[in-house]
Amino acid sequence: MSTLIKGGLVVNATGAFPADVLVAGEQIAALLAPGFPVQADETIDAGGKYVIPGGIDGHTHMEMPFGGTFSADTFATGTTAAAWGGTTTIVDFAVQAKGTSLLATLDKWHAKADGNCAVDYGFHMIVSDVDDTSLKEMESCVSAGVNTFKMFMAYPGVFYATDGEILRAMQKAREIGGTVMMHAENGIAIDQLVAQALAQGRTDPVEHGLTRPAELEGEATSRAITLAKVTGSPLYIVHLSAAQALDAVTRARDTGQNVFAETCPQYLYLSLEDLAKPDFEGSKYVASPPLRPREHQSELWRGLRTNDLSVVSTDHCPFCFKDQKELGRGDFSKIPNGIPGVEHRMDLLHQGVVKGEISLERWVEISSTTPARMFGLHPRKGVLAPGADADIVVYDPTAKQTISAATHHMNVDYSAYEGMEITGKVDTVLSRGRVVVDGSGFRGAVGHGRFLTRELNQYLV
Ligand SMILES: NC(=O)NCCC(=O)O
Ligand SMILES: [Zn+2]
Ligand SMILES: [Zn+2]
């Protein structure tokens, strides 16, 4: 089966140029001068549109056990929604439950995901126990294609790791070619602020934001960077939300340390004002780190331009408003933490291009090319070039759409971006050469997505 994508503007992280893209089987066969005569079984007209590498969302949580419930998207529904939004690869988190083994965890996540994904997928591993067994098992995870290990300085009693545990895991990561991913918030101090708020009868969702000050994200980020420096381990800060944390990352990067960071669309577009919405509406916006006052947003956009923020992932972690966020009515600390977004990352970041915050090429870089390199998937993913997987999005930059829960495909009963008007829209999506979304709707299949074993982080020096 061959497909010719004709007449579009090909956009890679390195530049944009008019070209036709020839797909043969699952791979890109050639980028051709526009109109170059070639036979293909199917032709897609991309006139007036961008042709970009499929999005790679390096931070999702499908079917995640958390906050006394499970995130509402299954691998089937979540990856289908991803495809609708032009994301053709996700990297999800396998979660080690305390007292269980990392390899059993990996088996459990394969059982959930294998045969159930509409697009390709990989795993990171959440390490909840740092002991000799888990540390040894990290080696086997790397052999199984999982070389990124998330740890938490937040959530005492759940995922929290002490500095000593983090240090040991970082030493192991350094030894085996892994990268530690860090949820950097000072959970011990936050727990005190939460207890004080509840004791004073402050129970509304906005308190989630007020009890997790930006300084405590900045402090934890600095501490994680110091531990990484002492151990020589690479470090990837997940879901960075605060200017103070960005400052710490910038300083470390300026000294040449292997420190990387991602932010998420919610921190670029939503704010503490959303958390303060009345009638428990604010619960829709509870995630950790919390949404910040608006002034952080311009700093985050600046960080994306300067590459101190290298990646934008969603931290997609959907909980329904009606029966899941409800668990925290009367006690904000019991609201399941997470915001849905896997379907809208490409569109939301395109608004950055429309508004002049980032270039067209940078849009592709932070949403596809850098995640591919960071998570060991490049050059198979993240670039339009001969030999790469034909994960391709035809994107209409002038189409208008309005985000709404009434039209989205994520298995969640609200949208954090309800009513937001977007310029640009996914037109056609190919996953390994197969059209999975086009004007007629979803043409893919649950089960089409394959597990990706990942190589080394390509940014390590
Ligand atoms: N971020 C969030 O609130 N939920 C997902 C779990 C995590 O990434 O910490
Ligand atoms: Zn986290
Ligand atoms: Zn997360």
TrEMBL record:
What does the sequence similarity comment in the record state about its family? Belongs to the metallo-dependent hydrolases superfamily. Hydantoinase/dihydropyrimidinase family.
Give an example GO molecular function: hydrolase activity, acting on carbon-nitrogen (but not peptide) bonds, in cyclic amides
Q: What is this protein called?
A: D-hydantoinase
Recorded coiled-coil stretches: none
Q: Identify the residues that the record assigns to the Amidohydrolase-related domain, covering every copy.
A: 50-436
PANTHER family, alphabetically? COLLAPSIN RESPONSE MEDIATOR PROTEIN, HYDRANTOINASE/DIHYDROPYRIMIDINASE FAMILY MEMBER
Do the record's keywords include Hydrolase?
A: yes
Q: Which cofactor does it need?
A: Zn(2+)
Q: Which GO terms describe its cellular component?
A: cytosol
